[in-house]
Design goal:
Length: 415
């Protein structure tokens, strides 16, 4: 029996979240305590990933729009899985090849992951929007987010359990989950509404891809809303890189865990992730019932409010005097990010033509990578010169221009 596209998409989001939670719940303990990375090295790792994405995003997005979104997604799953498995074996690889240090192997694994992400980003969203339609995709994004949070819950438990056997085991298992998902998509993913651009004359593959890329660039240049989204994406990427890479370090080094509760750091991070996921799951279910995601104004107002709240949450976490204060700020930020993601995807896809959807989405991911590549080293430098707390304040400041952009877009919509 053929599986519906919406079911495949929800399954894909569930499995991706399961794999990511399995890896990333305890990855900070693995990177900081086992691999011995300092704050600057943590940001360098992220910068290599984002620079790779920046370089390859345009190419892979054009491939998806020119040849096949399905093919691009499946390739991405296999490349990503290989990168994660590689990242979980860097200690052994360094021992087996004395000329190449462990950090170099880690950076190479980030490069492989970056290439994999570019094949996946844009293509999976472009595929499902074409399959179900723009009017229905907003509700589907919220539903997929709900199931992805369930996958996160299972992945958190798996991560803590696997970490108790070996610190690198969650990374390896997460990578194998991506590889398994690739095989699932080969069997179940269908592409029925994608129309491959007609070739003109004896044009080469390179010329076809160039034509698609130029079409996507023209779409962005001619639409003020897409230019606004581009600005939002750059600053959001710059802010998120600092927070995503350093919040665990801030919790470990500056705040600390309650001394009267004798739990390992892996268990603490697992408990924080579980709490954040439960609260986010409740918030997403509420939004799914109350918000009409087919109306652009609803989405815009929601993102404006959430961005303001994220700035407040980041500052609250940066200056948290106690663990309980920091935990409340983390939970709030987790809820905000869970709601922002489907809203952003909905808003973006409301303003893109189907023929260049994957290309434009990849360009947006490229701008996100540019923001993270530029903002990451800046935030890391501040952390090394001053403190991780100061880095988080800079990350909050980088979000402030987004409020101005949303304000202007809303005024134009009202006018």
């Amino acid at each position: 029996m053929q599986v519906r596209a919406s079911q495949v998409y929800v399954t894909m989001m569930f499995m991706v979240s399961l794999a990511n939670a399995t890896m990333f719940t305890t990855y900070a303990v693995y990177f900081i305590t086992m691999l011995g990375l300092n704050p600057l090295q943590l940001l360098i790792v992220g910068t290599v990933l984002e620079m790779t994405a920046f370089v390859f995003e345009g190419i892979t997005g054009v491939v998806a729009d020119t040849y096949s979104r399905r093919r691009s997604v499946i390739i991405g799953m296999f490349v990503l899985g290989s990168g994660f498995v590689l990242g979980g074996n860097v200690q052994w690889l360094a021992q087996g090849s004395l000329l190449i240090p462990m950090f170099a192997w880690l950076l190479f694994s980030e490069f492989v992951k970056g290439v994999g992400y570019t094949f996946l980003s844009g293509a999976n969203t472009a595929w499902i929007v074409d399959e179900v339609g723009e009017d229905k995709v907003g509700a589907l994004f919220l539903r997929a987010k709900r199931f992805s949070l369930l996958g996160t819950l299972i992945g958190i438990a798996a991560s803590v359990g696997l970490y108790s056997f070996a610190s690198n085991l969650p990374y390896m298992v997460g990578g194998f989950l991506y590889l398994g998902l690739g095989f699932f998509l080969i069997l179940c993913m269908r592409e029925t509404n994608f129309v491959r651009p007609a070739r003109t004359g004896d044009t080469s593959h390179f010329q076809e891809m160039k034509k698609t890329w130029l079409s996507g660039a023209k779409v962005i240049r001619r639409h003020p809303v897409l230019l606004a989204i581009l600005v939002v994406t750059i600053f959001s990427g710059a802010a998120s890189e600092g927070y995503d890479r350093l919040w665990e370090a801030h919790l470990i080094a500056d705040i600390g865990f309650p001394a009267d509760i004798p739990l390992s750091m892996a268990i603490w991070f697992g408990m924080i992730s579980v709490l954040s996921t439960f609260v986010s799951l409740f918030a997403v279910q509420l939004a799914e019932k109350r918000l009409d995601m087919s109306k652009e104004r609803v989405v815009l107002v929601g993102m404006f409010v959430l961005t303001g709240l994220r700035i407040v949450g980041l500052l609250a976490f940066a200056f948290a005097p106690t663990f309980v204060w920091a935990l409340c700020a983390l939970l709030a930020i987790g809820v905000i990010k869970s709601l922002e993601e489907p809203m952003y995807d909905t808003w973006l896809n409301m303003n893109i033509d189907s023929s260049v959807r994957a290309t434009v989405l990849s360009m947006m991911s490229q701008s996100n990578a540019l923001g993270q590549s530029g903002g990451g080293p800046l935030v890391g430098w501040v952390g090394n010169r001053l403190s991780v707390r100061a880095s988080l304040v800079v990350a909050a400041a980088l979000l402030s221009p987004i409020l101005i952009v949303f304000g202007r877009v809303l005024r134009k919509k009202n006018g």
